[in-house]
Amino acid sequence: MYRHKKQTGGSGQFGEVHLRIMPLAEGDFEFENKIFGGAISSSYMSSIEKGIRNVMKLGVIAGYPAAGFRVEVFDGKEHPVDSKPIAFEIAGREAFKLAFKDAAPVLREPIMNVRITVPEANMGDILGDLNTRRARVQGMETERGESVISAQVPLAEMLRYTSQLRSMTGGRGLFTMELDHYENVPHNITEQIIAERQKELAKEKEE
Q1: Among the residues of the chain, which ranges form H helices?
Q2: pLDDT of 116-175, one tens digit each?
Q3: Last residue of some domain: 102, 124, 147?
Q4: Is there a single domain that holds both residue 97 and residue 120?
Q5: Which are the contacts of 117, defined by CB distance < 8 A and separation ≥ 6?
Q6: Please, is 160 exposed, middle or buried when counting C-beta atoms within 10 Å of its C-beta (0-12, 13-18, 19+)?
Q7: CATH number at residue 156
Q8: What's the confidence (pLDDT) of residue 8?
Q9: Same domain, 71 and 7
């Protein structure tokens, strides 16, 4: 719940929004008006949704976009004079921030299907390197005298892999990858990401 109330001598602003968040098994975002009895006029629902969507773009955790949930507005209050769209946009935005943090959100990352082809002599080095990248090796085979490794690897661990693979194989290795699914980022890595983001924001404020 969040109540936005602003009085500056002239026309004021007032909007109160009660909402809840539930995870979605599929889909990005759903918004539903669950109010019965007219506690908030239906005309303000688009403003509430707008406030929520603005927060979703900026993100609540470490500045990453938020997705994978349904928001239901189930109660609230309005004022006959001071309620206006901007008041409910702000109230919706802030109510969402509070509810989102209480919902124990997690960071999710793309997991890629990776296929690496290297000379057989380089197999050990490649496997050892994959172990440092949080990879899950799915299989190994030999094709025309070369070793082929199939693995699932977080996309974040594949940055600059082209040059690193070239270095490990003397330019004779190649790989392909495609998105398979998303998974929760491990807790210890989430903490590192949030800490780094907080440092970046602090530096931006100083500048």
Answers
A1: 45-58, 85-102, 123-131, 161-169, 187-206
A2: 999 999 999 999 999 999 999 999 999 888 999 999 999 999 999 999 999 999 999 999
A3: 102
A4: no
A5: 143, 146, 147, 148, 173, 174, 175
A6: exposed
A7: 3.30.70.240
A8: 74
A9: yes
* Predicted TM-score of the model (pTM): 0.78
pLDDT, tens digit (0-9, with 9 covering 90-100), for 181-193: 999 999 999 999 8
Q: Which residues pair with 119 in a beta bridge?
A: 146
Taking the C-alpha atoms of residue 145 and residue 80, their distance in angstroms, rounded to an integer, is: 79
- 181: tokens are 């699914």
What one-letter code names the amino acid at 184?
N
Other CB atoms within 10 A of residue 201 CB: 12
- Tell the residue number behind the tokens 């040059």, with chain if given: 163
Q: Rounded to whole angstroms, how far apart are CA atoms 41 and 192? A: 43
- Is the Cβ–Cβ distance between 93 and 17 less than 8 Å? no
Interval 59-116: pLDDT, tens: 888 788 898 899 999 999 999 999 999 999 999 999 999 999 898 888 999 999 999 9
Q: Tokens 């995870």 label which residue?
A: 23
Cα–Cα distance for residue pair 43/82, rounded to 1 Å:
15
- Answer whether residue 192 is part of any domain: no
Residue 91 sits in the same domain as residue 42 = yes
